[in-house]
Design a protein that fits this description.
Length: 112
């Protein structure tokens, strides 16, 4: 995974790293957990041909925003984020991950 360190992306004080089309943009050093989290997103993106990942991500975020009425809680409850946060510390997760595993996280109860 290519990592580009910069002070612009991701936007906002609350975000440290963002994965855009398999390239990680970070505001500083990334540990193995952050990198694994973003690698999980890259696997999700590849499964959904990148564009559909981003469209699905935005649509689900809007649905979660109406559901929870708070943008941070909406973010943590997107199925893609649930899968990535739940498995980010398991550095071998991608070796055993089944395709479209994020689908399991569509109906899990709210997080955070």
């Amino acid at each position: 995974m290519k990592i580009i360190y910069n002070k612009i992306l991701p936007f906002g004080r609350n975000f440290y790293a963002i994965n855009l089309f398999g390239v990680l943009f970070a505001k500083g050093p990334c540990n193995s957990v952050i990198i694994n989290h973003e690698k999980i997103h890259t696997a999700q993106m590849k499964e959904m041909a990148y564009l559909f990942f981003y469209l699905s991500y935005i649509v689900e975020w809007i649905v979660r925003l109406f559901q929870y009425g708070f943008s941070t809680k909406a973010y943590y409850n997107i199925s893609f984020e649930r899968e990535a946060y739940r498995n980010q510390t398991d550095l071998s997760y991608l070796d055993s991950r089944k395709p479209f595993s994020f689908m399991r996280y569509l109906s899990i109860r709210s997080r955070k």
